[in-house]
Amino acid sequence: MLAVANQRELADDEAIKAMLLPIECALVMSSQVGTLIRSYGTKMRALISCVRVRVYQLLILLPPKSYEQMFHSLLRELVAEVTLSDDQGSQMMTAVAGLLCSGAEHTLLAPWSGGATDQALVEDQLQTLSHIGSGALENDSTCLISGSAKDVHNLWPEPDTPQAACLDAAIQAYGKVFPMIPDRQKLQITEHFADVIKNCKHAQRQQAVCCSRYLCRTSATLCYF
């Protein structure tokens, strides 16, 4: 489906309509992550993250109007992903700051991101909340065939873990959907973010959620304009 969505001449109304049911089923499955982990063990967490990554990447490519009937369930999953609600011990930091920020905020949030040098790699690994360095081709072997042939030599940074990639994709998908919802729902989501950040007991987790929330807002602003 991602391959079709990437080609505008193939992603016509009929093709998009055929994608909606699998997307909806994937969202329903994602909402049952707690039950699945209790039934089948923690190994399900990474597998569910892989499914979520593909769903969010697909939704980023599709016109938001085509799946607006799913906004409620989708936003519930996106907000849970951004606030790290599915893993109360997580301090996962997003890596999309380098894509969404370009000014002084880039220096603060991702001073070394985007640099393909040894120094950038070392500095990223030293960041308190960075997950750079955990990348490996095994995390997503499709990167070897899904990119452009001219970029095949550029394999750094290697694909992140499914959980990290899921957070990055969720932030970008959030940016596509948030501007489309009613103001009342926007206020509810904003207040929920504030409550989650306020109630974080660990400083590093709070910092990670704050950064993800800021980048969600940045992504939404860029998509709106």
UniProtKB/TrEMBL annotation:
One Gene Ontology biological process: intracellular protein localization
GO CC terms, sorted: cytosol; endocytic vesicle; Golgi apparatus; membrane
Membrane-crossing residue ranges in chain numbering: none
InterPro entries: Laa1/Sip1/HEATR5
The protein, known as: Uncharacterized protein
Organism: Necator americanus (Human hookworm)
